Amino acid sequence: MISMKLIATNKSEQNVAAIDPWTLVHLSMGLASGLTELPFRSVMGAAIAYEIVEQWGQRTKFGQRLFRVSGPESPSNVVMDIVTFAGGYWLGQRWNRSRDERFADSSFQDENS
Q1: Of 30, 63, 98, 112, which cross-links 89 as Cys (Cβ 3.0–4.6 Å)?
Q2: Which domain holds residue 80?
Q3: Which residues of 74-103 are buried (b: 16+ CB within 10 A; e: fewer)?
């Protein structure tokens, strides 16, 4: 029977569980990309390319030492990293739009004139 862990609670579960401490890094990078208005296709392409390179690297002894892991990420971890990156990007874009909507609102401008 194959079991899948949702959240890593110690280092040995990193890359096995869908969510590990690096998930927060992916979310943050997506958020930064969205806040700085980087093009979505470019940053998503880079995020996916990174995951491919990481998968390849973690299958080598050098990569395992570099990333400090015992093997490649599980498919659920790869998917979660990409999804959280995209979610972070969406949050950054949404934040920027909320700022723009507030300044476009004439009642806000009248109150602060």
Answers
A1: 30
A2: 27-100
A3: bebbbebbbebbbbbbeebbeeeeeeeeee
Residue-wise pLDDT tens digits, 43-58: 999 999 999 998 888 8
Mean pLDDT computed over 1-7: 70
Q: What token pair was written down for 59?
A: 């299958």
Give every CB contact of residue 52 below 8 A, 6+ residues apart in sequence.
none
Q: Could you read off the pLDDT of 59-105 as tens digits, one per residue?
A: 888 888 888 877 788 999 999 999 999 999 999 999 999 976 666 65
Residue 112 inside a domain? The answer is: no
Residue 66 lies in a domain: yes
β-strand partners of 19 = 7
